[in-house]
Amino acid sequence: MVVASPRTFGTFNSNDRLGKARSFDFLVDVLVPELLSRFPQLRRDRAGRGLTGISMGAYGSLKIFLRRPELYGAVSALSPWVEDLSFEFQRTQGFIARLTLGRVFGKTAETSTIRSESLFVLLDGSCLPRSDRPPLLLVAGDAERWVVNGSVLRLEGALNAAGIPFESRTRPGGHDWDFWRASFPEIVLFHATIFRMPPAEPEAAGN
After folding, report:
1. Beta-strand pair 136-141/50-51
2. CB–CB of 191/76 below 8 Å?
């Protein structure tokens, strides 16, 4: 088993507006092929790969789940950052957050790409069959901001409306390492169940 934890701090796991820092493209187009190249003994089928993240990383995992569901056999999100992203949201943030969001998504309403990175917008445009989606697990603490303000519940509703199956678990706790340490074993068990599946047989070559 190989565990990869890419550093995407300050990128919101997104490509920037100008296409210079393409963190999302790295995560979906470069990371898996690079790992398979470095470790040829790894399974090649998607059931041998799991994707998870915490907080902002969980938001990134959900974006990959929605945009590139064929990459992983299972996806989990622990305490996901769930905001209905828009330029108005960006304007209401603190000074440092506005700078970071502006650097990635654009500093004016006319140039901003932030709306296209909203999980709710992605789900509204989701049209893939349910069978194309890997299993999804959401885990969050009952005292977390996005649980208390209803954002996680709204995300669950959007997933249901898009016909995407998932499992959601809410546990006592907050948005902190105590909760994440206590919750991570169930994340590992969720993925281990998929890993137990036998590798897919290669398709026969056509005539």
Report:
1. unpaired
2. yes
Question: Which pair of tokens denotes residue 78?
Answer: 């622990």
Q: Is 38 exposed, middle or buried (0-12, 13-18, 19+ CB in 10 A)?
A: exposed
Distance CA 53, CA 28 (A): 14
How many Cα atoms within 13 Å fall on the side-chain side of residue 59? Answer: 20
Q: CA 20 → CA 5, 48, 102, 187, distances in Å?
A: 22, 31, 14, 33
Tokens of 198: 């036998």
Residue type at position 22:
R
Give yes or no for residue 205 having a pLDDT over 50.
Answer: no
Q: What's the predicted TM-score (pTM) here?
A: 0.91
Q: b/e per residue, 124-147, with b = 16+ CB within 10 A? A: eebeeeeeebbbbbbbbbeebbbb
DSSP 168: E
- What domains can you pick out in the chain, each with its CATH number? 43-83+123-194 (3.40.50.1820)
Other CB atoms within a 10 A radius of the CB of residue 178 amount to: 10
Q: What is the pLDDT of residues 32-78, one digit of tens each?
A: 999 999 999 999 999 999 999 999 999 999 999 999 999 999 999 99
